[in-house]
Amino acid sequence: MSLLLLFLDELKGFAKSKIMIILWFGLPALAILIHFIQPETEDFPITSLVTIVVSSIGSTLSSIMLSTSIVNEKNNHVYELFLVRPVKRYSLLISKFLAVYLCLIIAVGLSLLVGLVIDGITVGIPEDFLDLIFDSLSISLSSMAITCSIGIFFGVLVSSVAAAAILSVYLGSQLSSIILLPTFFSETLDPVLLALTIGISATITIMMINIVIFSRKQF
Amino acid sequence: MSQNSCIELHNVSKSYKDLLALNNISFSIEKGDVFGYIGPNGAGKTTTIKILVGLIPNFKGEVYVNEKHLSKYKDLHKIIGYHPQEVGFQEWRTVDHALKTFGRLSGLNKNLLENRIQEILKFVNLEDVRYKKIKNLSGGMIQKLRLSQALLHEPEILVLDEPLSGLDPSMRFQIKGLIKDLAKSGITILFSSHILSDVQDIANIIGILHKGELLKIGTPDDLQSDFQVGNIIKIEVAKDSPLCQGLENIPEIEKVEQLASNLQFVHLKSEINLDLIINQILKSLIESKCNIRNFSVVKPSLEEVYLKYVGGEVK
Predict the structure, then answer these.
(1) B225-271 pLDDT, tens per residue?
(2) Is B19 at the interface with chain A, CB within 8 A?
(3) Rounded to an integer, what distance in angstroms lies between the CA atom of residue B111 and that of residue B100?
(4) Interstrand relation of B205-210 and B34-38 (parallel, antiparallel or unpaired)
(5) SS3 for A117-149, per residue?
(6) What residues in A contact B106, CB-CB < 8 Å?
(7) Chain A touched by B89 (CB under 8 Å)
(8) How, if at all, do strands B34-38 and B188-193 pair?
């Protein structure tokens, strides 16, 4: 009950935040911009390119937003009022993660739609477009989930807003690339399946670490 | 355990690494009491309060609320309303949204909540800012919002951590008034402050905490009479009346201070029989044909008592 309530509440908060407005309007605008900057993408549909670029920018921004909001809320003792009510500590973190992740999926979805429209008008939709979209979306969503969970990790761990933001930018993006790392060593591995497996397991592991650290915090 | 007790702490201690924040604190608060918990900053007031509301689960000692052990009290949140010292709100929320969230999390029904929020905002006089964003509220309004969220679920016990701190005089007066109203309604209140005047005219029991130790607990009268700073007798006579003469000759009197043409303060030596000396002073007054308007034993102010206990370390 409290998880659902907190999730809807956080969703409302994040959806109204400036970063989310940038993501929802800025990222689709970026998709259009990519088309004009790089019209020669040969056989590579703009949709796939957009998905990768947009998810990378979006997940970095979301990670910063998560880490800085958690640090701010910790420093301002926001959680005390939640924790004196029947609210589990893990609900606070999971609700934040799910709210931001959902906002991010919406932003990427909107950009993807714009990319599809551009592709439809310019080069036409390729036959294997569904496969291409699925591949790039799977990789992007996995990477985004890891980046968001790392954002929460730094939010929970550090007490400086600046440190949380810097660590999220540099380490968040770097660490999320682990989903593709094994494919460099073996060509037989399916990158999509690998990305999904690593993405889900890494996100769950990092979130569990986050919950353990957060549960030990003294408020 | 007292049958009427609402809150009981037995030998409660809490350390943060090498720092002993609370050392064997024991006290009890009865139903309907207004307990003023005073002490300088860092005395351990917030630690005690956080233990009581369940925010600090690891401590030594026993705490009972309504005769139930704190660790076994699953519905503690239903009976305690907590006003934290420096809690912030998520500033993107409006007052209404914040109260709705906290109300729902406290288990209040959606329909009931709407009326309850209206009732509370009227009580704290925040109706006009109900749909304003929290980031646009003044410090005093935020303090009232803190109080509002604590009252939403109509708790039996209200725990207020420094509710008057950082407020301008007008807002202090308003919040103090609200606390007095709540006290009159029979709710049990524990509230902390590092300023004695904040608690002295509201609390019926005062606990003085210093460096993690509860130095004294009692009614304001108990505290004053237990801690005689020095007996002083105030004598006020009519404007056209002569002042009492010859008091200096009484051996038990240390000095006589004339503060106005009709006002004298008689300082008595320590360890004297107060009743005996009062009789002697009254006899002198009658002999001097003074028209007495006021004759009273001046007790030390609570402020003096407090300062004596905490060794003048009030910050």
Answers:
(1) 765 555 788 889 888 888 888 888 888 888 888 888 888 888 888 77
(2) no
(3) 11
(4) parallel
(5) HHHHHHCCCCCCHHHHHHHHHHHHHHHHHHHHH
(6) 85-86
(7) yes
(8) parallel
Q: Tell me the C-alpha distance between B34 and B173, whole Å.
A: 17
Encoding tokens for residue B206? 């005062």
Q: H-helix or E-strand containing A116? A: helix A89-122
Chain A residues touching residue B55 (CB < 8 angstroms): 80, 83-84, 219
- The residue assigned the tokens 């700073």 is B229
- Angstrom distances, CA of residue A8 to CA of A81, A100, A166, B116: 18, 11, 28, 22
Q: Do B87 and A78 touch (CB under 8 A)?
A: yes
Distance of CA A78 to the CA centre of its chain: 24
Which range has the top average pLDDT, A15-24, A201-210, B4-13? A201-210
Residue B9, min C-alpha distance to chain A (Å): 19
Residue type, B82: Y
Residue B52 contacts residue B77 (beta carbons within 8 Å): no
Cα B58 to Cα A216: distance, rounded to the nearest angstrom: 11
Residue type present at position B155: P
Across chain B, where does the E strand assignment appear?
A: 5-16, 19-30, 34-38, 60-65, 68-69, 80-83, 157-161, 188-193, 205-210, 213-218, 232-237, 253-260, 263-268, 292-298
What is the tens place of the pLDDT at every residue in A108-118? 888 888 877 87
Q: Is the pLDDT higher at A42 or at A201?
A: A201
Judge: A80–B54 Cβ closer than 8 Å, yes or no: no
Whats the size of chain A, residue-wise? Answer: 219
A86 inside 8 A of chain B by CB: yes
Give the span between the Cα atoms of B285 and B287, in whole angstroms.
5
| A28 bridge partner residues | none
Report the complex ipTM.
Answer: 0.84
Three-class secondary structure of residue B30 per DSSP? strand
What Å distances lie between residue B143 and B33, B93, B259, CA to CA?
A: 23, 16, 42
Neighbours of B58 (CB within 10 A): 8
Q: Which two tokens stand for residue A75?
A: 């420093």
Which whole-number Å values give the CA distances from A125 to A10, A110, A118, A119, A206, in the listed order? 37, 17, 9, 6, 38
- Chain B touched by A218 (CB under 8 Å): yes
Are the C-beta atoms of B105 and A87 separated by less than 8 Å? yes
Please classify residue B260 by burial: count the beta carbons closer than 10 Å to its beta carbon, then call 0-12 exposed, 13-18 middle and 19+ buried. Answer: exposed
**Distance from C-alpha of A84 to C-alpha of A88, rounded to nearest angstrom:** 10
